[in-house]
Amino acid sequence: MLKKYFLLFLISTTLLFAVTKEEIEPFMVKKVNEVLSILKNDQIKQEDKSEKIVSIMDPIFDYTLMSRLSLGKEWNTLSDEKQKEFTTLFTKVLKKSYLHKLDLYTNQKIKFLGTQEPKKNRVVLNTVLIGEKENFDINYKFYQQAKDDWKIYDIKLLGVSIIQTYRQQFAGFLKDKSFDELFKNLNSKK
Questions:
Q1: pLDDT tens profile 121-135
Q2: What residue ranges do the domains of the chain occupy?
Q3: According to CATH, what is the number of the domain 2-189?
């Protein structure tokens, strides 16, 4: 089941440039279709597919905010240098986790269901991954980073927040271990 979550996350991570609030859905439609095209192309090597998809998705994600949210209040106990180190490690772990799930793609389709604005400066784009036997809800959570620049800070798959999941894992790890041990653990996974 975890592999399915990461496949959903992979397919969901597909934008190139900054987007205005009104452009979120049409831009996501375009970029998701680009990623699906890459995944379907048997002429592209797996490693090249990963590189192409990362180049499409990287600019729309705020990995620093995702890192901060995944650590919660513990983020503020880290020095600026340690925050940067954690962000670098966490970003690599996130990318590796979903890029290794590329082989799970089997021609699923994405249906876009529109956006919601739960509060000011927040937009949720609702989609469904349509599979052969079952469908999976994917909700992309955007925030307004600058005037006309919206970034993804979390994704909910089947009602489960990726960032909240990591936050729980990190909190459990840090109950009886140090940040240095967490960094060492993340280094072993990158």
A1: 999 999 998 888 888
A2: 2-189
A3: 3.10.450.710
